[in-house]
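Deliverable D2.4 — example input (structure tokens):
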């Protein structure tokens, strides 16, 4: 695969002329059509389904359901009344509709097909939160290319990803879909995914446009409840939530999806500050803004619009280009223009942006998808291989007392837990094209290393429901084994959109199983699968070794086995803190100091009255941001700040030596953090400003060097403008956000 990227963030004079020529010929109705995104299919029709199934069976062909088109769809396409589709991945259906748009509509403007390809299309990779835990943007770029290859082969030209919402509340089910709690890391991952999706030379000969989402601040949903109200300052908007979007646009993303939430009491979908002032006036970004699913209509329950007409008016005026699913633009936009309530120029601008994207994607030249391609391309062996690489790097070793891991192949195992032989839950949320048979389970992975007689398997309990519980069998198996391997966690449907939780402990009765097995005194290895950080202090104290495996996609089981037996040395690090208790949420490393900071992280109970502490638990998380162990040990030494007095135009260069002081080769994510000690507004206690993943052989040492332009050490100042303020800073290079070598530097006045 090459690494040429299509960028959609710049104006191209030839394309602009083409857009103008087209726009000049369009009727108002045709213009509105370009701003309508819908699903072309009607409601599910059982007879239609059964008939197709029967025909496929009679002909001995694989069955793929082709739903009936909406009764008005063909006429709409001929009239140019629809501009794009969502979540249609049937090449035959897409080509059929495309033919109507291209060959039978007056202006022949092709439709664009968008889809949610969040962590792979059919080759399902680990969930994005896990992918981010690789701290390996190059790897994510490759994974995103595979997703683009497969999606493009089924006719998709617009991927509704990356999800770049910063998420600091693990109750929020959608934390699974993003890169975690940090904007700097989020920026790196956003760039990588956009580059991967927008790669050129896809096998289909077509191109894909990325659609970062959800613009913006959606991750701040109060109490982690999906779709809930958000409320944060404009400074936090600019310093925390916006940067990953800006990074995605700078990498070439040509569209963005507006979020469901409100920003300062104005829902994102009709918010002029974010859609017009920031996107257009400040950033001069020429891309398309697409609403989230029915988000225009949702302005009514939000209480911003009395009816759909008003919702459409407010959205268009604010700067929303395309409406997804609801019919506000379709039903009312033309009339709003005719009545003078919406200026035609604004509609023209929106249409211009849509046509620009369609031209840049190459749809006018290559509107059809090759219907024979997908079966040859999907799940290609090299794609499956890459899914395994990503799964390996995404898993985070949280605990390994007495070097219990890697396991000896001679050890007799009791494999206990509802996720050990599970296919479908490994896929995690957003695997729309789920084929559980694609997945390798943990038991299948173990069988690569051990003969069947070397383990006993007891599911012991369901993942989340109450019964049946088979503690006796679990205990008997444990007693009979050298090591207990618990495979526990969440099901795929416990995270993702609309799947927030208030209790992040082990679901169902899994903890009862752990308690019973722990009482046997046998050494315990726990593989924990989840779509988010869990709150598991008890389990963490009971297990001797704990591997966070997330929902790791189709190669999950093999990846777990490779790590358990030491063929692969774990190298993942957390990108979202794991709290000790629910009451600590939100907990994130880059918090403010407050006027009454605790004297140390991990404050002692009751010892510091009237400080910003709890009386019943430390402030620190159980496992912090950036944390993850290896089977080897890395030692940090010799922090060196090349120029401790810097001007505003200089670059901060900091180096440190990292030594592999253990006995195995391993990869380490070396992290650089800074703190601006005094500002005109308060600053976080630490901010990630660099990371590098390096591989070292036993005994090998390397000097790692970070170069951070001083211009990147700024923030949103009192006047809401970006500023770098002179003064004293601290810097750390270390293995996570709570430790490392510390130094200081000074930025001089200009
Ligand atoms: C709603 C989700 O919020 C969004 O992420 C997704 O892209 C759309 N639905 C379309 O499925």
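Example output (designed residues):
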């Amino acid at each position: 695969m090459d690494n040429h990227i299509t960028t959609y963030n710049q104006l191209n004079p030839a394309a602009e002329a083409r857009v103008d020529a087209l726009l000049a010929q369009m009727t108002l109705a045709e213009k509105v059509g370009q701003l309508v995104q819908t699903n072309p299919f009607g409601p599910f029709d059982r007879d239609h389904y059964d008939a197709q199934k029967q025909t496929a069976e009679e002909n001995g062909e694989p069955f793929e359901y082709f739903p009936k088109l909406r009764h008005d769809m063909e006429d709409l396409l001929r009239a140019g009344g629809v501009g794009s589709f969502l979540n249609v991945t049937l090449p035959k259906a897409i080509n059929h509709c495309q033919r109507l748009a291209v060959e039978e509509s007056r202006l022949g403007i092709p439709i664009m097909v968008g889809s949610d390809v969040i962590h792979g299309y059919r080759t399902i990779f680990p969930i994005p939160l896990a992918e981010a835990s690789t701290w390996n943007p190059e790897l994510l770029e490759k994974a995103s290319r595979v997703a683009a290859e497969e999606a493009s082969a089924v006719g998709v030209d617009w991927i509704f990803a990356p999800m770049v919402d910063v998420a600091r509340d693990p109750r929020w089910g959608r934390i699974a879909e993003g890169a975690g709690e940090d904007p700097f890391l989020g920026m790196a991952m956003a760039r990588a995914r956009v580059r991967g999706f927008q790669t050129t030379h896809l096998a289909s000969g077509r191109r894909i446009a990325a659609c970062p989402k959800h613009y913006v601040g959606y991750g701040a949903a109060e109490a982690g409840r999906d779709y809930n109200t958000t409320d944060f300052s404009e400074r936090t908007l600019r310093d925390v939530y916006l940067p990953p979007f800006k990074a995605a646009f700078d990498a070439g993303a040509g569209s963005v999806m507006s979020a469901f939430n409100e920003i300062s009491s104005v829902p994102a979908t009709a918010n002029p500050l974010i859609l017009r002032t920031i996107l257009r006036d400040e950033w001069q970004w020429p891309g398309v803004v697409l609403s989230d699913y029915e988000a225009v209509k949702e302005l009514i329950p939000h209480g911003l619009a009395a009816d759909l007409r008003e919702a459409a008016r407010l959205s268009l005026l604010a700067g929303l280009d395309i409406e997804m699913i609801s019919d506000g633009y379709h039903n009312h936009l033309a009339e709003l223009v005719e009545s003078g309530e919406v200026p035609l120029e604004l509609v023209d601008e929106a249409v211009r942006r849509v046509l620009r994207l369609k031209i840049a994607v190459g749809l006018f030249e290559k509107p059809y998808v090759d219907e024979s391609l997908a079966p040859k391309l999907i799940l290609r062996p090299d794609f499956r291989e890459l899914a395994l690489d990503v799964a390996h790097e995404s898993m985070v070793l949280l605990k390994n007392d007495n070097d219990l891991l890697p396991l000896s192949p001679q050890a007799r195992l009791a494999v206990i837990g509802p996720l050990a032989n599970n296919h479908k839950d490994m896929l995690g949320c957003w695997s729309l094209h789920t084929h559980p048979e694609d997945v390798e389970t943990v038991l299948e992975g173990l069988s690569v290393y051990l003969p069947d007689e070397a383990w006993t398997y007891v599911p012991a309990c369901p993942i989340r429901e109450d019964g049946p519980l088979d503690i006796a069998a679990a205990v008997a198996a444990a007693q009979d084994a050298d090591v207990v391997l618990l495979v526990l966690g969440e099901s795929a449907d416990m995270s993702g959109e609309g799947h927030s939780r208030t209790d992040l402990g082990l679901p169902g009765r899994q903890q009862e199983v752990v308690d019973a097995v722990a009482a046997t005194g046998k050494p315990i290895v726990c593989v924990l699968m989840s779509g988010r950080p869990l709150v598991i202090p008890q389990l963490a104290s009971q297990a001797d070794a704990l591997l966070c495996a997330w929902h790791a996609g189709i190669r999950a089981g093999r990846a777990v086995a490779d790590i358990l037996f030491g063929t692969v040395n774990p190298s993942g690090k957390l990108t979202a803190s794991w709290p000790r208790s629910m009451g600590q949420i939100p907990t994130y490393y880059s918090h403010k100091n407050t006027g009454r900071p605790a004297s140390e992280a991990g404050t002692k109970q009751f010892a510091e009255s009237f400080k910003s502490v709890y009386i019943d638990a430390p402030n620190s998380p159980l496992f912090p941001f950036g944390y993850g162990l290896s089977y080897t040990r890395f030692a940090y030494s010799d922090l060196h700040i090349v120029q401790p007095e810097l001007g505003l135009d200089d670059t901060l260069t900091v180096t440190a030596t990292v030594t592999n002081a253990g006995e195995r080769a391993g990869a380490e994510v070396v992290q650089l953090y800074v703190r601006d000690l005094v500002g005109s507004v308060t600053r976080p206690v630490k901010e990630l400003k660099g990371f590098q993943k390096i591989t070292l052989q036993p005994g090998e040492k390397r000097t790692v060097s970070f170069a951070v332009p001083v211009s990147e050490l700024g923030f949103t100042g009192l006047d809401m403008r970006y500023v770098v303020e002179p003064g004293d800073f601290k810097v750390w290079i270390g293995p996570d956000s709570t430790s490392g070598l510390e130094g200081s530097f000074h930025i001089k006045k200009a």
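The radius of gyration is 27 Å.
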